[in-house]
Amino acid sequence: MIAKWISGAACIAFTASNATAAPFPERPIRIVVPTAIGGPSDLCLRAVADVMRADLGQHIVVENITGATGNIGLERVGNATPDGYTLSQASAGNTANLAARPKAAFDILNNMKPVGKVCQASFSLVVAPGLNVKTVEEFIRHAKTQQGKLSYGSIGHGSSQHLVGEMFAAAAGLDMIHVPYRGEALVAPELAAGRIHLMFMAGAKPFIDGGLVTGIATTNRDTWAPIPQLPPIGKTAVLPGFTYNGWNGLFAPKNAPDAAVRRISAALVKALADEKVRAVIRTLGNEPGAGTPEELAAQVRSDISNFRRIIEQRKLNIPE
Question: What is the pTM of this model?
């Protein structure tokens, strides 16, 4: 009887061990994108997902769930079963929203687990062609003679474009008027007509190429490969060290298994090393991320700290 009990217990233990050690993933993975289909962040993710499918051996279903500045999609993933099979993409827009609206925004810092950065972007500093300025130095010199009269656009109160615009104004000692819009495509003709004067754009290249705006610099630390003719702001004599990069990356629910997160991250790293994927990402005006949890976690902490600092420093009153 004892021998039979020991044999049965060993069998149960072996079965449990096998279940625990089952390879991940065993079924399709769902990734929620909290932005519209066809935007740069959506297309970057779809490019890496195609390669990740082959490495993971499972389908990856990409679903766009928009609304409430990305909060609806993020909340659905944050409340999903934390098993690694439901992920979300988030971006600098979400860290800006969290810093600007801590009571209303979904808290990706404390309620999500970073998987890896998919891509990063540089903002391009663009100005109205009618200003006839070609450099950061020229713009600042002109703006200081027009304190309180020049305006800059963004895609909304508390957006990363808004907060980077305030960082620039603070660093340069400028007083400018913030004018929010519902997208960069709406700002470009306003700049072309001279109704506003400056913007930090995430997707400036087509507007620069089309002559609607004048590009004068980027926020990247070094020359930005997709728009190499624009110098980095941080390497100018007037604003040394000024730098900021937008980004988007994958997150899992807070309690997702570390092993699952590492497996997905490894597949993402492999996809980001694929030259075809890298070419697609660069065509969209971005650069590939590193794909690791550590890089993404550091980016989120840095964003929130910097955004909170500028909101406090500039005494910004951002509507909920």
Answer: 0.87
